[in-house]
Amino acid sequence: MTGSGRVTVVEVGPRDGLQNERGFVPTGVKVAFVEALADAGLPVVETTAFVSPRAIPQLADSAEVFSRVRKKPGVRYPVLVPNERGLARALAAGAREISLFTAATDTFNLRNTNATIEESFARFAPVLLRAKAESLRVRGYVSTVFGCPYEGRVDPAKAVAVAVRLYEAGCEEVSLGDTIGVAVPTQVADVVGRLREAGVPVDRIALHMHDTRGTALANVVEGLREGVRVFDSSAGGLGGCPYAPGAAGNLATEDLLYLLHGMGYETGADLSRVARASRILAETTGRLPASRVFAALRGSSERG
Predict the structure, then answer these.
(1) Is 171 annotated as catalytic?
(2) pLDDT of 231-285, one tens digit each?
(3) Is 3 domain-assigned?
């Protein structure tokens, strides 16, 4: 399978990656990380989350981070918000694009947000109304689409119903999350196909894969085959999920770019510069990125 055309890579490391760090990453490092990712040509860099500092202390400096980041023309800087309070804080900081999140299972959603799926949609209602009034772009995340750490395998019909509901509520894009990294390509084809049949255009669907079991890139290829052209990833493979025991990191942006570029797709991103951005965090955390491509690039430079 060879590709052509444009694929959008949504970089989630500064939010989804850093929220799972054990220690607090200094504000200046976060700002430098976001700016380096944007300078690498990534078109969308999810910058932070306006969540409760008690729930996610790693992102307690969200307002300062967002306001300090030098915004590059042509780059989008979405932020995650859980409720009206988070939206108000995001707007005060100058955000123009937000993301909402729920899950395909009640148990995970209760652990993550202390709300059932139904209750999370009730929280979304006023957020979506104000977002529309403020002309904000809104994205919706669905976690545990393919499997849940508490409920096991997820009925695809249930996951699709949640995704359709987000789309119909006003989310311009819906990202399907393999939170614990259990999906295989046949499941990706099944869920994406069901969504299309339910009336969600394929250009409004994104895939957010985790590489816990080594299937993330295979799932991306299947997504491409199904017509998906938006994929989430995290520089260096940073992150996981604080509410999903055993979940490994996100799909590494470097690995995703290597695959896409090798298949002939355009992303606008410079892989080597993304790797340099990953190095910014590695120097702070003292841990090498999980990205296989990062390791290969590092090995080549050391041998050279």
Answers:
(1) no
(2) 999 999 998 655 555 556 799 999 999 999 999 999 999 999 999 999 999 999 8
(3) no
Inside any domain, residue 1 = no
Whether the per-residue pLDDT at 88 is higher than 70: the answer is yes
DSSP string, 241-253: -TTSTT--PBPBH
Task: Pull the structure tokens for residue 146.
Answer: 């393919």
Structure tokens at 109: 């959603």
- The CB density around residue 124, as the number of other CB atoms within 10 Å, is 25
- Residue 86 to residues 91, 146, 193, 235, 288: CA-CA distances in angstroms? 9, 28, 33, 25, 32
Set 9, 160, 241, 277: catalytic member: 241
**Residues, the chain:** 304
Question: Is residue 2 situated within a structural domain?
Answer: no
Of 156, 241, 163, 168, nearest in space to 206 by CA: 163
Residue range(s) defining the domain that contains residue 185: 8-303
DSSP SS3 for 225: helix
How many angstroms separate the first and last alpha carbons of the chain?
33
Report the CATH number at residue 118: 3.20.20.70
Residue 155 domain flag: yes
HSE, CB side, 13 Å, CA atoms: give it for residue 175. Answer: 26
In the numeric block, which tokens belong to residue 50?
């306006």
Give how many domains the chain has, as a whole number: 1
Residue 123's CB is within 10 A of a number of other CB atoms, namely 17
- What is the mean pLDDT of the segment spanning 59-71? 98
Question: Using CA atoms, how far apart are residues 100 and 79, in angstroms rounded to an integer?
Answer: 9
Contact residues for 200 (Cβ-Cβ < 8 A; gap 6+): 163, 164, 167, 174
Q: Quick one: which of 281, 268, 298, 206 has its CA closest to 236?
A: 281
* 123 vs 61: CA distance, rounded Å: 23
